[in-house]
Amino acid sequence: MEYLPCRACGYRTPKRLCARCYETAASAVDTLPAYYTRLGTVLAPGARATDRVTGSRQPPLPVRVGALSLRASGGIVGVLTRHEDDWRHCLGWTHRRFQGSIEQTVKASARFLSVNLAWAADSHPEPETFLADVKDLATVCRYELERKGDARPIGICPTEAETGRCQAVLWADPFAMEIRCWSCRTSWPREKWLALAAAMV
To answer: What pLDDT is stored for residue 48 in this prediction?
Structure first.
């Protein structure tokens, strides 16, 4: 049996994703529907300074911006449906059907991705991208709910798209080598953090 580096972490494994990375992806995608529901209960801002997001000249919203952006159309549902659409295209399957509300769509897409994760791990061109996206997304959700971990919200993503600015909340981990937007995938290495700070003003 030939062992090759895991596409995500580099650990030598007989499959493209090692067992640990596969389980991380499976766990993340399975928890996202519950995170979506729980985020609806923490929309009201608390008294902590971490509830405020810097990098904007607009007055603060009467809700927690992080939780709001995760529950918006470009948040959890945007990440999951983007991958579902991509997988359907790779498989040659029909287009994703309308599922109803955002919460219903989150549940349906998470279920689709969970059921087809084994295929993606074995056959998708970039299974490591899916792992990184859902892992980052679950981490951000967990912080919004529990306020634990080293990552902190630093501002609004300034990336320009066809529909305007991305508007997702950016998170920075002091131990990471880059800041990566969980919504639009734009990343900034450490040498570009000053430019990012200027773009968010």
So the answer is: 41
